[in-house]
Structures are given as C-alpha cells and as structure tokens.
TrEMBL record:
GO terms for cellular component: cytosol. Keywords: DNA-binding. SUPFAM superfamilies: Winged helix' DNA-binding domain. This is Fe-S cluster assembly transcriptional regulator IscR. InterPro entries: TF_HTH_IscR, Tscrpt_reg_Rrf2, WH-like_DNA-bd_sf, WH_DNA-bd_sf. Gene3D superfamilies: Winged helix-like DNA-binding domain superfamily/Winged helix DNA-binding domain. GO terms for molecular function: DNA-binding transcription factor activity; double-stranded DNA binding.
C-alpha cells in the first residue's frame, strides 16, 4: 500500500498554498512552477478540494485560491480523501471478499484483519497531522537552510 501521486501532490500543493496565502490568493500557476506539478493536474485536484470545502477560489485579477478553513483545522486525511485517494492496505478494498475457496465461496483471507487494522491506523495517523503541522515543519526547514547558507551553526537557528 502506498499513497499515489494524486495524494502526494494534493498535500504538497496545500502546503504551498498555506505558506503563501497571507499575501492574498495563490495562483495554481505559481504552485505549478514552484512544485513542478502540471497546471492541468492541479486544476483537477483543486476542483475536488474546493468541492470538499478545503479551499476557496477567488476570481478575477489577483485571483487564485485560499484555504477555506484555518490550516490547523485541515488534516492530511481531509486532503487525501478529498482527492479520492483510498487509504486501504487490504487486497479486497475492505470488502472482505479477499479469499475465494475451492468451493467458490468468498470470504476474508487469513491476513484480512491485519491489513484492515493497518488501514485504520494509517487513517488515524493522517487524521492526527494538520496542515498547520506541515507548514510549521516546512518553515523550520527553511530557517535551518537559510542559517546553513549564512554559515551559522544549526543550534543558533532555533
């Protein structure tokens, strides 16, 4: 089980948006350029994010996107599910029909509960990480990089 490009790109784009929205609406063209994500792909993702009320669109000159809620009230799980990204480690997609016996009857395979539990734990984890957590991590990373480039010892950046 792994998160696909759709989920990764959606989370990345939302971090970019959250980092820059204090200056006004953020354009998808800007996110596309900074993050190396196709503009048409971002348009598809942001359509879904808007329908799930995670972002608002602003039309006209100076338009773009802003967060519809505070970053601390948006979780990674919200973003991933908004773009239709399944978080399921089971072979059967959680349907419980992962074993087909020789008699043609379907049921759960011997490891179904293991993978179902893993799926629940992944969702719980993604639901425990807010967009604000990721923004804060990114800002700290940027501060550390700037300090390194300036030749300052790392412990001086905190």
């Amino acid at each position: 089980m792994r998160l696909t490009t759709k989920g990764r790109f959606a989370v990345t784009a939302m971090i970019d948006l959250a980092l820059r929205q204090q200056s006004g609406p953020v354009t998808l063209a800007g996110i596309s350029q900074r993050q190396g994500i196709s503009l048409s792909y971002l348009e598809q993702l942001f359509g879904k994010l808007r329908r799930h009320e995670l972002v608002d669109s602003v039309r006209g000159p100076g338009g773009g996107y802003t967060l519809a809620r505070l970053a601390r009230h948006i979780t990674v799980a919200d973003i991933v599910f908004a773009v239709d990204e399944p978080v399921d480690a089971t072979q059967c997609g959680g349907k419980g029909n992962c074993k087909q016996g020789t008699n043609g009857q379907k049921g759960e395979c011997m490891t179904h509960e293991l993978w179902a539990t893993l799926s629940r734990k992944m969702v719980d984890y993604l639901d425990s990480v807010s967009l604000q957590d990721l923004v804060d991590q990114q800002r700290l990373r940027q501060l550390k990089l700037a300090a390194q480039e300036a030749g300052q010892p790392e412990e001086c950046t905190l």
